[in-house]
Write a structure and sequence with these properties.
The protein is α+β, with helices and mostly antiparallel strands. Helices cover about 40% and strands about 20% of the residues. It is elongated, with a radius of gyration of 31 Å.
Length: about 350
Amino acid sequence: MSSWFANSIRWVTRKPNKALEWNFANISHPRRPMPLTHLDQDGKPVRVVLEERLGNELWVRPLDAGEPEPSAPILVTPRDIVVPFTPIHSTSLNTSPTVGDTASFMFSIPVIEVRRDDEQRKTFLRTRKVDEPMPTKRARAPWGYEKVFEEGAVVVEIEWIDQQFPPDEDGYASLAITLWTWLSVGPPPGTAYENLVRYLLAAARRLDLAHRQFQRIRRDLDELGNLPPGPQTRRAVFDIVGEIEMAVVALSRAVDMATKLPNLTTVPTPVPASMTAAVKTLTQLRNAYEHIEDRAQGQVLGKPDPVALTIFDWTSLLMDGAITYGPHRLELNAIQPLLLDTRSFLKTAAGEVKH
């Protein structure tokens, strides 16, 4: 044998792992080569497949849901150590310690294997950060091993939570559930914090409501031209105007609360200019809709005002796609960017408040 070939063999040879071999001695080293298709787990036969061969270690796992049956069994030779393991993709956070209580599930975080202690039968894990690359393979917990997260190994990021709830086709995703989940992690530090949580969630709920209503308004406006003239069209117009009255109130309150958040707590992120620019118009429209009984009588703050009745002029809405009241004008095309800007600010602020 040449020295080059001998050196190559020494280079690829793995150091025997006696602890690992001992832990699975009962299913390893058969007297003669044998096919393997199932292993016993908790008294039940489990279909297993070969994930990887590392030297004489055969790392086998249960067949994934929906994974096709292997075309051939695993061949185990007398020198092989069979290591059955459970792949671990993520860990979950729950509101209840009860195992199997699906109603208490909050969200999951991908995990990375840090190290394995075969003598203690432990697999040490940590959560993956949002900006970390995806591991090429899942973490592994050999059967019978304890899964351990040491202090500081679980890091919760608001972006992980937000990714649990995919956005709609317009790019907006429900915010209230993201903020509730994020702000529920860990014990609340005091009454002032609890007040702030209620404030953020109230603003988020109104923003989510405004988004849903404006989505419906856009669909109804698109369908308006397909309706037959007469009563059907008039009814659709009334429906759209009613939806706008409620949507503007929700959006105005959400934006107003968001812009006032820095007055309640330290928020390093500045309020977007789009939000501060929209506050005055939104507030005027909201006041007009909330006090529609005064506007119907041509009054503002209980006094006659020529601007009052302009809230009932829907010409700009139907012809130009704009909500108007006196000199104030809100373009429908500007609402979606405003929704996204407000959502982004509230989410970022909640992340800063938590820290």
